[in-house]
Amino acid sequence: MSTINRILTYEDIPVWRHARIIRWALQIISAIFVVALVAWFFTNMGSAIAERDIPFGFGFLSREYQTPIGDHFIPYESSDAFGYALGVGITNTLIVSVLGVILATLIGIVVGVARLSSNWIVNKIALAYVEFFRNVPVLVQLLFWFYIVLALPQVREGYVIADRLYLNNAGVSFPGPNVPGSLLVPLAWIVVTVAGVIAGIAAHRMLTRRETVTGRASYPLTAGCAVAIVVSGIAWMILSAVAGDAPFVMASPEPQGRFGRIAGGITVRAGVLVLLIGLVIYTSAFIGEIVRAGIQSVGRGQIEAGRALGLSPMAALRHVTFPQALRVIVPPLISQFLNLTKNSSLGGAVGYSELTNIGITMTQTAPAISIFMLIMVAYLAMSLAYSLVGNLYNRHISFERS
Amino acid sequence: MTTSADMTPTDSALPPPRSQTGVRGWVRENLFGSPLDSALTLVVGAVLVAAAWFGLGWVFFDADWRVISTIGGRFVIGNYNSDQVCPGNDCFWRPQASLLMVSALLGMAWGVAGAGVVRRIAILIAVVAALFAFLPYDFERMGMDVRLLLLANPVMLVAGWAIARYTRLGTPKWVAILSVVAFFLTLLLLLGLPGVPGLQPVDVRNWGGLTLNLVLAVSGIVLSLPVGVALALGRRSHLPVLKAVCVVFIEVFRGVPLITLLFMSQHLVPLAFPETFPRNSLLNAGIVITLFSSAYMAENVRGGLQALNPGQIEAARALGLPAWQTTLFITLPQAIRNVIPAIVGQFIGLFKDTSLVYIIGMLDIVEVGKTFVVGNTEYQQDAQEMFVFVALVFWVFTYGMSYVSRKVERHLGVGER
Description:
The structure holds two protein chains of two kinds. Chain A has twelve helices and eight strands. Chain A has helices at residues 2-8, 19-51, 82-115, 120-133, 138-150, 184-214, 220-243, 270-297, 300-308, 313-343, 355-362, 368-401, and strands at 159-161, 165-168, 171-174, 176-178, 249-251, 254-256, 261-263, 266-269. In chain A, the strands form three sheets. Chain A has a four-stranded antiparallel beta sheet with strand order 1-2-3-8. In chain A, strand 6 and strand 7 form a beta hairpin. In chain A, helix 11 packs antiparallel against helix 12 (368-401). The longest helix of chain A has 34 residues, at 82-115. Chain A is globular. By secondary structure, chain B is mainly α. The radius of gyration of chain B is 26 Å and the shape is globular. Chain B has 18 helices and one strand.
């Protein structure tokens, strides 16, 4: 009895073979190893910084940057601080990546659906698109488009299409909404409109629930859209009356002055244009494959069952295929969004001042290590934000299904 | 057009209508299946014809491809063979010798694997290499010996095949060992040995071209395998400190663009190591690319480990294997074999990503082309030709790799178990 007891309580086992002790020893050894490795790097770094007089620190952030930035979507002057200039870089990266993500998703869906088309010619073109563009480095593609745009005529001799669209080596200009007065008016209108859209969605949900519970026709979609449109329309009228100007007016681009500089409408400058074209084409090839795989993952029987229940082909696609395909599509899609954001760091190669490019320029007048630590933190924050959105969405769709 | 009625007269079934068989049937079904389909075919076909008209017109009439033949061997090796780096311009045989080793190894792989996709690829590569000997380069830049070395590739292929067939070296293990040996021999050949005639040392700053891309990609993926496996095991371990470190490492390296890491490497790698550590941009790039790649490798291997049937581990433990033997002999081999397709995909991505080393001033194939176009007023108009060519080079390599991987995958039946 006592022998069994001793075995069960591990009493006789020597210390060096005791599972719990081994586990603890491993914990401690691994911790010491990791700490020692990190400490070794940091002492090396510390002594190098001290001995070789390498600048380090974050005091530069409040200094004036004194360097112009080619593209900026928020107001920027050379006299602004380094910290603010980094903010300009972050907005530049964010704007390109958000636009790129939207466009790449739309084109990717078209490509993915085309890959499944029964039309031979459409199918093969989509296949060629995917196989070519995803197998060539995005840098090569960007440089290709860059030198095409660079070879376009100068602003004064640029192409003018239908008197509205201007294409030249400075970029492309087309008619679009312009802000006539203060920037605050459109901002206020956008805020109210977003609130209106949220109210519309809430109304849609409420009416849908009423419809399912009572069975009475409640027209949720019409009512929801009406709420959003009415709210934003009233806001538009009130703001126009109060401020004297409408939040936006449609304007066409027109050449001005001796050098034919184009003003009015919307101008997409060459750097943004090239970066967007390159990133969107590259990423949409990957997204196309993801969409195709997602749609193919839905069993044929699912669609047939939907059709047998009397759903129209479109309704079967919307209510049967898509909800199931999305579960397969969304996780790799999010990682493609992240890739696009990271690839936007190649903007410097095509003359667009995004975060990395601004950081590299900054290293000439400020400590490189500090700057790049900040930049890496910014990218990590973006990637975490993407993962967060992806995880939330994933949870949302998997809850709906269970 | 054959009809079943002709061949089986006893069969009472009627042959399908003519509109459903042969070319007409195919066109009807695949191009004009419905009114919408027909409209789509006509519109897309018109666009395609227009695109082909302009594209082919550009390729054959407008484009000036002389820029490619002028740049010639620099695409392969950068400034390695230039007058300043290699007096006498006779260093070009060194990358070529390495190509010959690749041919011999491919021959051995063919001998081991037998007929199939390996044979097709091996023959294709050797023949393409030999065909390069007939390209219209100037003789001053590319001497007769270079052409002969290129022509020797098919010979080496056959020699490798014979070795694999008729000696005891014809096993997968030996091919793997010799591949590693050949890789280090390549590095040695390119570096040179001081004091050996014909092998004068060449500074790694002058490595360039496609060789640089391949060296960085291959060493990145090979070295990242052990690091990645260690990280994957660390991430799954029960030791909190180790796990936290691995998670932070993986997420940081995956969340940040490679280009910032490369730029940072110039500043951080010399700082993180003592001053006696050799310093050059190739080594910096190699270290960063390896670490970057191992973060992705870790996630791939972790996927393989997670997909493993837990019964495998239980069976190993029941047989009395200690934890380290279970990992080394049971879980890891299966996990890695299952993620081979993912690793090939990662290698393709890494190969494409090596084009980013321009940021630390290295002349990879893209940068060779770009600096040539930007630097010579004579060729400034030819940027499109240059990048189309570079894109094609990359495409041939990456598409070839994905093709082989798909074939091998189907051959091994990975993913079907």
